[in-house]
Specification:
The protein is of the alpha/beta class and about 325 residues long. It has 13 helices and ten strands. β6, α4 and β7 form a beta-alpha-beta unit. Bound molecules: iron/sulfur cluster.
Length: about 325
């Protein structure tokens, strides 16, 4: 087995050269890539059906925060890098109208985000990205994002509990009014996919119902809910491993669909079924229909039909294929809820 550690841009050319010379090494370990040196991707090689969109790119990478469970921060060594704005613009001009930024938090460097967003004004794109919760409090940046075509943001809310956020070291989300965050972003005409994680030491069995209630009442447009997954290399993994609470070290199970650690206030089975139940409820046809109906009050029909509805149906399809809907039924029947 040959192992490539770190980002691909520096490693893969070396691996190919060594392969061509018949001398592949066992390990390739890369320094963090300088984003000014990123090669231009040859998009003709992309198998379009294999991705949500081939029009995906990055303006920034990494995050300076240190949330205990986060593999992004650990992988990027708790640093954030930005790509020269003119490079981003050059690539953006080669893409279609709809663009997906694969950044970890596109507004983390506020000054950079403003520079990039202003440069994007003439492009008239429609774009989506991951983003920090702080955008809701920066009225000017939020308006600018909407003006240049931002139509959907993925935001990692993680938990409704202050104790859980504190335990995760997710300080950037603390003491925020999540309902207000959703409302302000909706007022800008932007849809939100909320990320929530279940299985912290502070989570009791009522966490699923409480979170569902918030999601439905706040009109969250889409949901990514995951079982807490302590990836190796993160502070969370070290802590749980020390406590002997990692119950599964088959790395193929570290996919957010398996429970691999022993929660404190519920069984592994409850965490598994409770997360599935929440997914089943949130993506029921009746809730999707209700959500879409309400969304006409704050999102454009283009955003609803091009992004929100396909995302909801896509998640429903994916979760059904993974058996989440069946598992969710079992949670209810078991009487835990
Ligand atoms: S969870 Fe988000 S805020 Fe926290 S370290 Fe990861 S990318 Fe940064």
């Amino acid at each position: 087995m040959k192992i490539c550690i770190g980002e691909a841009e520096y490693n893969v050319p070396l691996m190919i050269a060594d392969f061509q010379n018949g001398g592949l090494k066992k390990f390739y370990k890369s320094e963090l890539v300088d984003l000014a040196e990123l090669p231009k991707p040859d998009r003709h090689l992309i198998r379009k059906n294999a991705y949500v969109t081939p029009n995906a790119m990055q303006a920034t990478r990494g995050c300076v925060h240190s949330c205990a469970f986060c593999s992004v921060a650990a992988f990027n060594r708790y640093k954030m890098r930005t790509r020269p704005v003119d490079h981003v613009m050059e690539e953006l001009k080669t893409l279609g109208k709809y663009v997906l930024f694969m950044d970890d938090n596109i507004i983390l460097d506020n000054a950079y985000a403003r520079e990039l967003f202003r440069a994007m004004i003439p492009l008239k794109k429609r774009w989506f990205s991951q983003c920090g919760i702080g955008i809701a409090e920066d009225e000017e940046l939020l308006e600018l994002a909407a003006q240049i075509g931002c139509r959907g943001l993925f935001i990692g809310f993680e938990s409704l509990s202050e104790q859980t956020l504190s335990a995760y070291s997710k300080h950037c989300n603390r003491k925020r009014n999540y309902r207000d965050v959703v409302k302000r972003i909706h007022e800008a005409g932007i849809a939100i996919c909320g990320g929530f994680v279940f299985g912290s030491d502070e989570d009791g069995e009522d966490v699923f119902e409480n979170t569902l209630q918030f999601l439905l009442e706040s009109n969250m447009d889409a949901l990514q809910s995951t079982r807490l997954t302590p990836f190796p290399g993160t502070p969370l993994f070290d802590e749980l491993d020390k406590e002997g609470r990692i119950v599964d070290k088959d790395w193929s199970h570290y996919d957010f669909f398996h429970v691999v650690h022993q929660p404190k206030q519920m069984s592994c089975e409850t965490l598994d079924k409770g997360t599935a139940w929440l997914q089943q409820q949130f993506y029921s046809y009746s809730n999707i229909t209700r959500r879409v109906g309400k969304a006409f009050g704050y999102l454009s029909s283009e955003t609803i039909f091009k992004a929100m509805l396909p995302l909801n149906l896509g998640w429903r399809y994916k979760l059904t294929s993974y058996g989440a809907f069946k598992l969710g039924n079992y949670f209810q029947k078991s009487g835990i809820n």
